[in-house]
Amino acid sequence: MTATDIDDPTVVTPSVPPLHLHHPADPAAKDQNSSFKAISKPPGASASPPPPTKQTPNFAPTGVLAAETNTVSGVVLKYNEPPEARKPPAKDAWRLYVFKGADLVETVELASRSCWLVGRERMVVDFPVDHPSCSKQHAVVQFRFVTKTNEFGEKDGRVKPYLIDLESANGTSVNGEQIPPTRYVELKDKDMIQFGLSTREYVLMLPPGG
User: Fold this and answer.
1) CB contact set of 99 (below 8 Å; sequence gap of 6+)
2) What is the phi-psi region of residue 84: left when phi exceeds 0, alpha when psi lies from -120 to 50, beta otherwise?
3) CA–CA separation, 119 vs 176, rounded Å?
4) 191: number of CA atoms within 13 Å, CB side?
5) Residue 145 burial (C-beta neighbours within 10 Å; 0-12, 13-18, 19+)
6) Three-class SS of residue 116?
7) For residue 108, which phi and psi values (nearest 5 degrees)?
8) Nearest 5 degrees, angle CA 30-CA 34-CA 35?
9) Which of 46, 91, 135, 147 is deepest in the core (most CB within 10 A)?
10) How many Å apart are CA 40 and CA 66, to the nearest integer?
11) Cα 199 to chain center, whole Å?
12) In terms of C-beta density within 10 A (0-12 exposed, 13-18 middle, 19 or more buried), how is residue 156 classed?
């Protein structure tokens, strides 16, 4: 293109159609606006967004409120009994014999309740242990109703003793072996329990005929 082409009055510049603004009284503008919306709307889009899902209220206690509902004498308990908690039947008179060396220093009738919280926090525990290596809320002896099915498909339900360590500082042992924390371990007749680094031995026994 030469300079004369630029100055040539015969060169026609393309005209730009005027922009029609939407006005309620102008039906043509309304049609143009509708066409524009139809083009710009992505395929498959609905005319209006679906209503948000309505959430149901949750009235369960959480945080501080939950802690306060599980508080005794201002102390927050680390343990709640499970739904299958049961007192053992009268015929199963479980006992805990406490030995210090060769001496029997105490006998505890465990069948009088379904749960025994063990620890140094005397305000809340059911069975206090005073050794400094034991935690304030150390472990729990819990009686639970459990159902087992044999190879013939028959179900047998019984109340059995279990031990659970509450993430204590120095652990809990059964027959000389430390048990995993926060897991129920079934106890058997004549099992020997130790809490923390205490040398006291707690022997679980079911009297003859139980």
Assistant:
1) 105, 200, 201, 202, 203
2) alpha
3) 19
4) 18
5) middle
6) strand
7) -115, 125
8) 120
9) 135
10) 52
11) 34
12) exposed
Spatial distance between the Cα atoms of 21 and 23, rounded to a whole number of angstroms: 6
Q: What count of Cα atoms within 13 Å lies in the side-chain half-sphere of residue 166?
A: 20
pTM beyond cutoff 0.70: no
CA–CA gap between residue 134 and residue 128 (Å, rounded): 10
Q: pLDDT tens digits, the chain, 210 residues: what are they?
A: 444 444 444 444 445 455 444 444 554 444 444 444 444 455 555 556 666 555 544 444 444 544 456 888 788 999 999 999 999 999 999 999 999 999 999 999 999 999 999 999 999 999 999 999 999 999 999 999 999 888 888 888 999 999 999 999 999 999 999 999 999 999 999 999 999 999 999 999 998 865
